[in-house]
């Protein structure tokens, strides 16, 4: 992936690579020496390292090109935007449950990775000031506890 903005604000390009990455070329690229994407190599294909793609902020002007030339970050950032819209709508009470009531509690039924991911999210958010305020406001309004 590449960043179209340097830390000084000019248009010079910085390339980021992970150990063992094989740079991929954009199909429209005329230069064969400038890497334009982070890729991991296998015997049959070259594809971007998606675990890195999921960590790239949407507001820094990066691209991560797939072998077909499309930017993998567009789909990832589009999904992030949909999740943000849905979560904001739930918080504001605009999206309601099947009974028409405001969604207040979530029950997770499962085991393994999904539960571990939610536990990780809980641990991350419980140290976030805005999330802590929202939780304490809810708990004081509802008389509930965690």
From TrEMBL:
UniProt cross-references to Pfam families, sorted A to Z: PGI
SUPFAM superfamilies: SIS domain
One of the protein's GO biological processes: gluconeogenesis
GO MF, one example: glucose-6-phosphate isomerase activity
Biased composition, class Low complexity, residue ranges: 27-49
InterPro entries per the UniProt record, alphabetical: G6P_Isomerase (IPR001672), SIS_dom_sf (IPR046348)
Chain residue ranges for the region called Disordered: 1-54
Protein name in UniProt: Uncharacterized protein
Upper lineage: Eukaryota, Sar, Stramenopiles, Ochrophyta, Bacillariophyta
């Amino acid at each position: 992936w590449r960043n179209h903005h340097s830390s000084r604000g000019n248009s010079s390009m910085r390339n980021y690579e992970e150990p063992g990455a094989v740079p991929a070329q954009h199909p429209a690229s005329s230069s064969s020496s400038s890497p334009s994407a982070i890729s991991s190599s296998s015997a049959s294909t070259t594809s971007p390292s998606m675990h890195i793609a999921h960590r790239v902020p949407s507001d820094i002007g990066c691209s991560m090109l797939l072998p077909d030339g499309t930017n993998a970050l567009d789909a990832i950032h589009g999904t992030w935007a949909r999740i943000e819209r849905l979560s904001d709508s739930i918080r504001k009470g605009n999206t309601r449950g099947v009974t028409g009531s405001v969604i207040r509690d979530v029950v997770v039924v499962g085991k393994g990775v999904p539960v571990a991911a939610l536990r990780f999210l809980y641990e991350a958010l419980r140290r976030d000031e805005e999330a802590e305020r929202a939780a304490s406001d809810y708990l004081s309004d509802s008389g509930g506890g965690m």
